[in-house]
Amino acid sequence: MKKAGFYSPYLDVLGGGEFYSLGVLEWLLTKGYQVDLFWPDETILKKLTARFNFQANKNLQIKNFPSKQLERLGQLKNYDHFFYMTDGSLFFSSAKNSTLLIQSPVHMPALNLINWLKLKTWHQLICYSSYMQKALPKPFKACIQVIYPPVNNQEFQAEKKAKIILSVGRFFCQPNNKKHQFLIKVFQDLLPQMTGWQLIIAGSLSTADQARFKQLKKAVQSPSIKLLPNLSFNELKALYGKAAIYWHAAGYAEDLVQYPEKAEHFGITTVEAMASGAVPVVIEAGGQPEIVTHGQNGLLWQTKKELIGQTLQLIKLDKNWQRLSRAAQKRAQDFSKAKFFQSLNEKII
After folding, report:
1. Looking at the DSSP assignment, which residues form a beta bridge with residue 201?
2. What percentage of the chain has pLDDT greater than the value 70?
3. What pLDDT sits at residue 175?
4. Which of 48, 87, 145, 292 has its CB 3.0 to 4.6 Å from that of 54, i.e. a possible disulfide?
């Protein structure tokens, strides 16, 4: 049986990069590989299952990642495939086929001589949007490939819609602030014109970000706004199903030329919402325009005024909402797990 290894230093963050990582793991398992997932604690599988509904099997094992270079080289040479989601660090790989995944510009390995030598031991570089590809330094643009993240579209479905605007994003501040406080302020300004509507913001919350979460709670001045941290996959799926509108604002009022990492690098939650029949009203920044075509399967905005105007127009014109909802569900199919697997089959040597 062929062997593969996977290592991400951020696996317990349970964000978009980790979701992408699990897609790669599932691809390897479906191809019949014996997969070693490097992590110091076996309870990580329970966390991944609860957050992402990840289904492991007997061919997946948890192992400690070797910290010493010689020991690491000795172990990696046993793998037919090795994947590494970099945190900005880089090492020599001795695997038969090594793939480096870069999830954001701030996780780009430094451009120095030793790293160039290390890169020669990696067979392919991957990122998950054209936005990310363009944000990387010039030497990397020509050799990195874009493979969009997978979304389990069959897991999501539209339920009876309620007057809910949903936004999903991790409750943290840097480097990719989800602009929760901005959305709270916008919704509170809109409340007089949106009788019966709710804004629900859901996302993972770590111990380190508790202070930030308390600040957000203080900003909430209406019972129509709910902050829901650390929901299970099934709880989040139910919310998607009920939500009529999906908001996303990461990158708003930021200098994205100098700090491209402050926009959404792709937008997995946007696709999940679309698959569930929610109409996306999202900022025209980052990877969002690669998902949403304005007026066809959702709405894009650049200013606070546009966000307010598009949202109010959407709730007043039911026929337009229905048209966009159907188109959003159709568009979400373009980011299916099957297409993700096909891209990996085509682009991974």
Report:
1. 167, 227
2. 98
3. 56
4. 48
